[in-house]
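Morning F.,

Quick status update on the modeling queue. The single chain you submitted on Monday has been processed. Sequence for confirmation:
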Amino acid sequence: MLKKPATYKEQIERLRAHGCVIEDEAFCEEVLTRISYYRLSAYFLPLRATSGKRKLEVDFVKVYNLYEFDRKLRHLIFSAIEELEVYLRAQLSYFHTHKYGADGYLNTANFNNRHNHAKFVERIDELVKRNNKLPFVSHHLTKYDGKFPLWVLTELFTFGMLSYFYADMISSDQKHIAHDIFDTSVSKAKSWLYCCTDLRNLCAHYGRLYYSVLSAVPAKLPNVSKENENSLFAAVMALRKLYLSQSKWNNELLPSMVALFDEYVEVIELEHIGFPQGWETAIRR
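Structure tokens below.
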């Protein structure tokens, strides 16, 4: 039988029963109305793991600050992934259309043997149908009889579809993108794109980064050990390798991240996100 819903007052008493110290009930209730008991309760997990106790005394404000750190870090990382995603759309569509034509993506011969063309076209049709009210989609549906050049269509692609598109390109095309755009091998480019897809989806759906094990494991990266390969740090290192601008990474993203870590230095534990001591130097490009 499912639990009965609890009022905010009952939720506060439940927190206290688990060892949470709440000095300002009004503030606690206000936080619970904005975040929800269930989402916030996940931020008690690392504190229990550190203490080795199921019940421990912990200030509610500390738990809330962990949540705030996670929220701000997620926003910072997502902004970097957004730039990578837009860049990937531009590069893949430019290369593919200049080699195979505006609608060359409809020809299965322009992909490798692992490509499931029927599924690919089905996913495209679903995206078009779902977004048919957007002006540029409606324009191509009416004026061009539903035909889309790749540079238009990729505006509808998710990061996952872009990663899928790259993984299904002909080997020589993959090598061109990996070498000329990302200065790496095909296997590493595919791995890091998959890892960034996982990280992007976690950020986009407001998932918890702090004290979380990511599902994607990136190909070999500097300063990432076998024991640390599922950590947030490993995912950030994969993003670092694919990020287009060294200057923006070092002069915008990195300082913002350092400032955020400094702001919450009293509440966070680096090991809970896989970041080593001296991480600032490790992630500099």
